Automatic annotation (TrEMBL):
EC number(s) given by UniProt: 3.6.1.8
Hydrolase listed as a keyword: yes
Designated name of the protein: Nucleoside triphosphate pyrophosphohydrolase
CDD domains in the record: NTP-PPase_MazG_Cterm, NTP-PPase_MazG_Nterm
Organism name: Roseovarius gahaiensis
Example of a GO MF term: ATP diphosphatase activity
Sequence similarity: Belongs to the nucleoside triphosphate pyrophosphohydrolase family.
Amino acid sequence: MPQDPALNTPEDAMPRLLDIMRRLRDPDAGCPWDIEQDFTTIAPYTIEEAYEVADAIERADWGDLRDELGDLLLQVVFHAQIADDQALFCFDDVARAIADKMVARHPHVFGSESRDKSAAQQTRDWEAIKAAERAQKAQTGVLDGVAVGLPALLRAVKLQKRAARVGFDWPETTQVLDKLAEESAELVQAAEGLSHDEIEDEMGDLLFVMANLARHLKVDPESALRRTNAKFTRRFALIEKWLAEDGKTPDQSDLAEMDALWTRAKMHEKAGG
């Protein structure tokens, strides 16, 4: 009996993966869970896998990165197979489209343009090409094409960058800081007597300005917040460890004690502990 090619490990790994996904989605012999999925149900997994790739990079865990990239690739294959099942497009169409786009966006590599230009000029050229692509899709507004499904903080930065290209931007970082103080005061006022919806609106305004400040300081706010999340996790773990040494848990402690331990954890990190 011939061996099942999906169970082998041939040199050409991509066709094997595509075949595995086709079989998982086969209406008669596939996996019931995979068959039931659609673009909407799979999309959250796609976003999650992209963040797990970023997490592996943050931790410099290259073995984990290999695995997480595989998980992310599976998401692309999954979406492409769903599209193929609906006669919308197939994986080859996806690969062909991105290859064509990369060639078109790099005329200084694949065309006759000179490579002798600065990174800043290449960025301007890249944006001009993307603007032309958006125009072909009838996306003529400055903010057209910024995906609604992006994480809100990332989308805020992208919207602000687009607006800045046409001059809608504060020229000085100090002006952003002034706006930050203004929005902070408005949030405090809202919290004192406005509705939850109005408070949420003011909170959004404050976060939007924070994203703008990060952009002016050339800081990726998503990366900055991930770093702070990791720092908080490390320091709180130390608090738990030191409390455990005294036979206690955090819920058996109080804010004053844990705050003192937090300060100790900060000093511990600064000392290289």
